[in-house]
Amino acid sequence: MRYSQLLIPTLKEVPSEAEVVSHVLLLRGGFIRKLTAGIYTYLPLGLMAIRKVEQIVREEMNRAGAQEVLMPMVQPADLWMETGRYKKYGPELLRFHDRHERESCLGPTHEEVITDIARKELHSYRDLPVNLYQIQTKFRDEIRPRFGLMRGREFIMKDAYSFDVDDAGAEVSYRKMYDAYRRIFTRCGLDFRAVQADSGAIGGNFSHEFMVLAKTGEDTIVICDSCDFAANKEKAAVVLRPAAEGEPLRVMAKVETPGKRKVETVCEFLGIGPEALVKTMVYKADGVPVAVLLRGDREVEEVKLKNLLGVADVELAGEQEVFDATRVPTGYLGPVGLSLRLVVDQEVAAMRNFTVGANEKNHHLQNVNLGRDFQVEAVGDLRRITVDDPCPQCGGRLALTEGIEVGHVFKLGTGYSQSMNATFQDSDGQGKHFVMGCYGIGVSRVVAAAIEQNHDEHGIVFPVPLAPFTVIVLNLGGKDETLCELAESLYGKLQAAGLEVLLDDRDERPGLKFKDADLLGIPYRVTVGNSYTKSGKVEVRRRRDGVVEELTPEETVTFLVERIGAELKK
RNA sequence: CGGGGCAUAGCGCAGCCUGGUUAGCGCGCCUGCCUUGGGAGCAGGAGGUCGCAGGUUCGAAUCCUGCUGCCCCGACCA
To answer: How high is the pLDDT of residue A245?
Structure first.
């Protein structure tokens, strides 16, 4: 295509609204424009990049045996009431009424709709397994949309849903998707990790997130440097190290700690380390207060707490809520004599003679011991993993790193098929619930993630498979007819050779064309200028590393076809 | 939802504290000349409900009140 005929409104200056590099470069390169918070228009170049990702996703999904469909974005509330999610989903679900006052919502995800299709259209075990997917705009009214395409309210997602006769089948479907995802992100040219993720109530090891490694990632992942263990931080199991044996149980004693409420100040006042203190935190588990015990220097991993308690949501209680539930001011809470549900981290269960709040203002208890001085409802792994913990798989050293979640595969089980009564007739004549899986890819986020991972001070450095164009031909000929004709013929020949070429035919000075070409991140640049007049060769430059080849026009075509072909095959 | 910040030309900003003619600057845009290998130069020009609504005042971009929008941080440690 011709630059002069494309809308590519590049910006010289950094728009004030943008913070992260992908957002800045997408705006500066004229790929996107914001309409309102978290909602963007994809301009021609932005859409081309999106389409590249979509095409790779489509090819790999089809190859894995999935079938493409397209479901409605507007969905009736009734369906969501069947699964109970109309209430549970919260304010992220955008609800509205149509002219007939029917309650509706914009689809943030499509389990309900697809399960409805399944129960209506899939009747026999002979119809299974089935995997249906779509690439579609989703709407989620995020608490805080940010970072451009990274966390938008409206975004493009590929979502797939598998239906199987039983768990074994579902696990095969899951594995197929897992493998397809690996191929997709590899083909996109991304540096990514598949990490274990929280699988909530379903349990088992059937939830993986695909994380693009980048500092701006909103997730933290844990990677082992000596085995293949990789997990989302919220999922990573903490290995309980054996407690030091032998310390005799001492007599519990109340001490005065006037005005000392924080772990730090209590420890300082008592002359102990935070690892000798146990803090008591009150959470609201689906609204019900629950006390959680944790070593003084540890942090709660809320996802683990949620799973241990078997609730949908946990939230730290406020000071007033804590007082209402316990009649104790925050800072002096403790497990002894507390009348709340009580769960403890496994580490605490192994401790002896620790210090806790006395449930009385300005007092703490020392030499407290679980079992002797108080009882608990449950013990489990509740704390956030740290780099000092060993790898749960091999005991090796762990590293924490940031990642951008671009994909998630998840075994759903029969939760949706049961609540929506979606069954098929099995070979034994019995009606059974579908065993489901769901698989998502943030298509628009992939573009942002790719840029987070591939850029330099001049602009984007697109991986070849995602680049809107793989070659840009700069016509620096000005009024020189020979050069203009050469640029035109090269443009034609490269296109005829099957490459996606952008011809910068604008009546602009060379400097500006170079700057724009760099900013747009097109992998290969061909410069037709006065060096050709001198030597009969044009300059072919690779965006990624600036490596330059001086080639004749004929050589240029074969060189680029070969290079780009090789990079697409990877 | 809590905290902080911002809102003046397409973009980036100044002016506001200390109210006073016609609201500025850079980039971009238009016209012409000139130039053509890293965001050129010269000349001329267009473009503004100063976010919205009230209020104070002889007079408001500027002071006050309310609202809206956007951005950032947080919504996990008692």
So the answer is: 67
A498's tokens = 């099957």
**Window A347-366, strand B contacts by Cβ < 7 Å:** 357
Nearest-nucleotide field for A279 (CA, C1')? B78
Q: Say how far apart CA A406 and CA A383 lie, in whole Å.
A: 26
- Nearest nucleic acid nucleotide to A319, CA to C1' distance: B78
Mean confidence (pLDDT) of chain A: 92
Burial class (CB in 10 A: 0-12, 13-18, 19+), A197: buried
Question: Closest CA to B12 C1' — which residue?
Answer: A13
pLDDT of residue A142: 87
Please report how many Cα atoms fall inside a 13 Å half-sphere around the Cα of residue A34, on the Cβ side.
19
Which nt sits closest to A23, CA to C1'? B71
Q: Is the CB of A511 under 7 A from strand B?
A: yes
Asked if A74 and A411 touch (Cβ cutoff 8 Å), the reply is no
- List bases, strand B, within 7 Å of protein CB: 1, 11-13, 26-28, 35-40, 69-78
Pairing, β A524-528 against β A471-475: parallel
Q: Please name the nucleotide lying closest to A329, CA to C1'.
A: B78
With b for 16 or more beta-carbon neighbours within 10 A and e for fewer, the A539-557 pattern comes to bbbebbeeeebebebeebb
Q: Is the CB of A282 within 7 Å of strand B? A: yes
- pTM of structure: 0.92
pLDDT at A201: 64
> Using the 8-state DSSP alphabet, how is residue A31 labeled?
S
Cα–Cα dist A179/A183, whole Å: 6
A559 φ/ψ angles, rounded to the nearest 5 degrees: -60, -50
Residue whose C-alpha is closest to residue A438's, from A233, A138, A84: A138
Per-residue model confidence as pLDDT tens digits over A233-257 = 888 889 887 766 667 889 999 999 8
- The predicted pLDDT at position A244 comes to 63
| Cα–Cα distance for residue pair A319/A220, rounded to 1 Å | 29
Q: Indicate if the alpha-carbon torsion angle A416, A419, A424, A428 is positive or negative.
A: positive
A529 beta carbon to strand B: under 7 Å: yes
